[in-house]
Design goal:
Layout (H helix, E strand, L loop, with lengths): L1 H14 L7 E8 L3 E8 L4 E2 L6 E2 L2 E14 L2 E13 L5 E3 L13 H10 L6 H8 L3 H11 L10 E8 L7 E7 L4 E6 L4 H8 L4 H5 L3 E4 L3 H10 L4 E4 L1 H21 L6 H8 L1 H5 L10 E3 L4 E3 L1 H9 L3 H19 L2 H17 L3 H12 L1 H6 L3 E2 L4 E2 L3 H17 L5 H11 L10
Parallel strand pairs: 2-6, 8-11, 11-12
Antiparallel strand pairs: 1-2, 3-4, 5-6, 6-7, 8-9, 9-10, 13-14, 15-16
Length: 428
């Protein structure tokens, strides 16, 4: 019977993760919503931390209440009868146990649970509720044990900003490795001086390892990359220069629409079918569909022809947009410079102000835009900022579930820790 009781006590200890060979389970009790587990340790000869002598004399006992998280919907607490020894040199000391650190009121198992729970994209408040502790304690333990370090600069690097709300900064900066799909680091802002200071902490060998940098058309990034990575090729993400032309074409549509009477057929058509005006030619259907408002059959291509004939500038804007789509999706790297140069000339000759401005911007970034047509040998696809744009969406989810962050250090650690390629835990 005694052997069975000892085995049961050991099983309860294993079930509650109260580890340590010298720890003995005395009893346990349930209250309305709490579980209290009473443990103690055997009296032994212990070494004095001051003089090194062994002593068995007891100075006193005191009861410690240790938070042990939740167990089966009960708030679990360990009641540990702490023993203090007295040495002949006058030193009073306690013996350290495995399940709780010195001067702590949270068990080591609860701390491990914090690290595990924070792997999920959830708020610190939710983690605190699950583990029966305050959100402040969860945040403190997370920053202590999950402090993330920056990664190694890759051959292909992407940089982009995202909207932040930490430490008074409007934008934070993300640095990624698109080939290996990992986040290198998160920076508090995108100021030129701070970026130069940050990249100045890397060795020359690490900086020379970067061969390609993908980014948007922000002049600060261009200046920093040219200064820090003089041998790296700059690539403008295709989404940004395509959006430049589509926005210009859409502005031509809006300007033309505002010059018409609101009751006219052209105004209603330009207002309702604006997506069709910007759609790629390959995605425009020839299938006839019945328009219940006009009580007639029509196809998307026919409707687009009507839109183009409303005004000569609309027809020219659509021609330039279609030719630009053809270049983006059909041109190869050796010939794209020639194709884009011809398009820029045609856009300038059109005398359409919106497209002329877009052509001037593309001309200003022509080399960097042409670089986006090169093939990345690591992925066998064209260079782009698609991965870093995806991580920005991932970061927005973290912000939304956590209702924002005020401390940048916590925000950065949360992003890097939650990302699958950047997780790091400090045990000590």
């Amino acid at each position: 019977m005694q052997t069975n009781f000892i085995m049961i006590r050991q099983e309860i200890k294993d079930l509650l993760n109260i580890y340590g060979s010298i720890v003995k389970l005395e009893s346990y009790e349930f209250t309305h919503d709490s579980l209290f587990v009473y443990v103690s340790t055997n009296r032994n000869y212990e070494v004095c931390p001051v003089c090194g002598d062994r002593t068995n004399e007891i100075h006193d006992y005191y009861m410690r209440t240790i938070n042990h998280g939740r167990f089966n919907n009960y708030d679990c607490f360990i009641k540990y009868n702490q023993r203090r020894y007295r040495c002949s040199c006058g030193k009073r000391f306690s013996v350290q146990v495995d399940f709780v650190e010195k001067f702590n009121k949270i068990s080591s198992n609860s701390k491990l649970s914090v690290i595990k729970e924070c792997e999920a994209v959830s708020s610190f408040k939710n983690v605190a509720y699950k583990l029966n502790m305050s959100s402040t304690s969860v945040r403190r333990l997370f920053n202590k044990h999950c402090d993330q370090v920056r990664g190694v600069l890759p051959r292909v690097m992407s940089i982009d900003e995202f909207k932040g709300n930490t430490d008074g900064n409007r934008f934070n900066l993300s640095i990624c490795d698109p080939s290996n799909r990992s986040i290198i680091d998160i920076l508090p802002n995108r100021f030129k001086s701070d970026l130069l200071e940050y990249f100045g902490t890397f060795t020359k060998l690490e900086l020379n390892n970067v061969e390609v940098v993908t980014m948007d058309m922000y002049h600060v990034y261009y200046d920093v990359v040219k200064q820090v990575f003089p041998k790296a090729a700059i690539v403008i993400d295709p989404f940004h220069f395509v959006r430049l032309v589509t926005t210009a074409s859409n502005n031509v549509r809006i300007r033309t629409m505002k010059g018409l009477k609101k009751s006219s057929k052209g105004y209603k058509l330009l207002k309702s079918r604006w997506r069709l005006f910007l759609t790629k030619e390959t995605k425009i259907s020839e299938t006839l569909r019945f328009n219940k408002y006009k009580h007639e059959w029509e196809s998307s291509s026919h409707t687009l022809d009507i839109i183009r004939n409303i005004h000569p500038e609309l027809n020219k804007a659509r021609e330039l947009l279609e030719s630009f789509y053809t270049i983006v999706h059909g041109s190869k790297y050796p010939m794209v410079h020639h194709d884009l140069t011809n398009w820029i000339v045609q856009a300038k000759l059109s005398n359409i102000g919106e497209l002329r401005e877009a052509a001037l911007s593309i001309e200003r970034w022509l080399i960097e835009i042409c670089n986006s047509f090169m093939i990345n040998p690591d992925t066998d696809t064209r260079y782009s900022s698609a991965f870093i744009e995806g991580t920005n969406n991932f970061i927005k989810v973290i912000k939304r579930t956590s209702y924002g962050f005020r401390c940048f250090k916590t925000f950065r650690n949360k992003i890097l820790y939650n990302h699958r390629n950047s997780r790091r835990v400090i045990k000590a």
